[in-house]
Specification:
With about 325 residues, the protein is of the alpha/beta class. It contains 11 helices and 12 strands. The protein has helices at about 20-25, 45-55, 75-80, 95-105, 125-135, 160-170, 180-185, 210-215, 230-240, 265-280, 290-310; strands at about 5-10, 35-40, 60-65, 85, 110-115, 120, 140-145, 155, 195-200, 200, 205-210, 245-255. Strands 1, 2, 3, 4, 5, 6, 7, 9, 11 and 12 form a 10-stranded mixed sheet that branches.
Length: about 325
């Protein structure tokens, strides 16, 4: 750590910097094992609790990237932790772009990317680090994420095929227990504990990634503002032979909506725009002929999501 708060403006050119200036350590200096990057936007008091939870769980370095918050959350961090590194781009870059800046500001070989509204259970970092250590071809691993009511949030999922995607899109909002949603969200993982399992992708709300793999694919794709950047990252890692995993030995509680509830309808639009971007990128061969149907389905789902939000569903 530098011994002082560094509130830096950073360039938005290029997602991740690599090479000796980012990854090399000075001779005789031991690089920390795990860095934590917290992407903050209007998260209030939750940010301070999240930071201190990760520090208590063993994070060797922590960097906060603030996406233009005006709620005083960064000022509270500075008051309590004046030595902490804070990256201040000066505007809201979106989740993946901000995370890229945070990763570039760290040096550890393993980096945990975190939402600011998480409560961390003790031993989570150790469990995630152990999972990667035991499986050299796993690029990243996500913990068990619970809701505030104690239920497992479906943070480990399949890449949806056209049938599951269509069924989930049309039924998932109003009938969440339908078979398409259960398949897509890996409902069979409910209640599982113990050994990690390989999955297609894990939520960007919290995951530990190997820096080497993250930089190999250029980090998050910054054309996504919010949502689906995690699906896209895992999909691109898969193109290089890497895999993702879910490790229920690590556990966090996600207080969803702390940031996104400030602009709910914009978030719905961004969500579905990102789904369209990923569908266009990942659909191959004859299935591309069905993209107009996918577009119609995602558009219908966006309308249903807005109606559900307006009626309190």
């Amino acid at each position: 750590m530098s011994g002082r708060t560094r509130a830096r403006s950073v360039s938005t050119d290029g997602p991740v910097r690599s090479g000796p200036e980012r990854n090399g350590a000075e001779p005789g200096v031991t690089r920390p094992t795990v860095a934590v990057v917290i992407v903050n936007y209007e998260s209030g008091d939750a940010l301070l609790q999240c930071l201190e939870d990760w520090q208590a769980d063993g994070a060797a370095e922590v960097v906060i990237v603030d996406n233009g918050s005006e709620d005083g959350s960064v000022d509270r961090i500075r008051a309590h932790h004046p030595d902490l590194d804070i990256v201040v781009p000066g505007r809201n870059l979106g989740y993946g772009s901000a995370a890229n800046r945070g990763v570039a500001a760290t040096t550890a070989p393993l980096v945990l990317v975190s939402n600011p509204d998480l409560e961390v259970r003790p031993g989570t970092l150790a469990g995630l680090v152990g999972a990667l250590a035991d499986h050299p071809r796993w690029a990243l691993v996500g913990p068990l994420i619970r809701t505030t009511t104690g239920e497992r949030y479906p943070s480990a999922r399949r890449f949806p095929d056209l049938v599951d995607a269509g069924g989930h899109a049309l039924l998932g909002i109003f009938a969440p227990d339908n078979r398409f949603t259960r398949s897509y969200q890996r409902s069979e993982l409910d209640g599982t504990v113990g050994d990690p399992v390989e999955v297609d992708w894990v939520s960007g709300a919290c995951f530990l990634v190997r820096r080497s793999a993250f930089e190999q694919v250029g980090g998050f794709d910054e054309s996504y503002f919010m949502y689906a950047e995690d699906v896209d990252l895992c999909w691109r890692l898969g193109q290089y032979g890497w895999r993702a995993a879910y490790a229920p030995a690590g556990e966090v509680v996600h207080r969803q909506g702390v940031s996104t509830d400030h602009h709910p309808y914009r978030m719905i639009i961004e969500h579905h725009r990102s789904l369209l971007r990923f569908a266009a990128r990942s659909t191959r061969g004859w299935r591309r002929l069905l993209l107009p149907v996918v577009v119609a389905g995602i558009g219908t789902r966006a309308v249903l999501a807005c109606l559900a939000r307006g009626t309190g569903r």
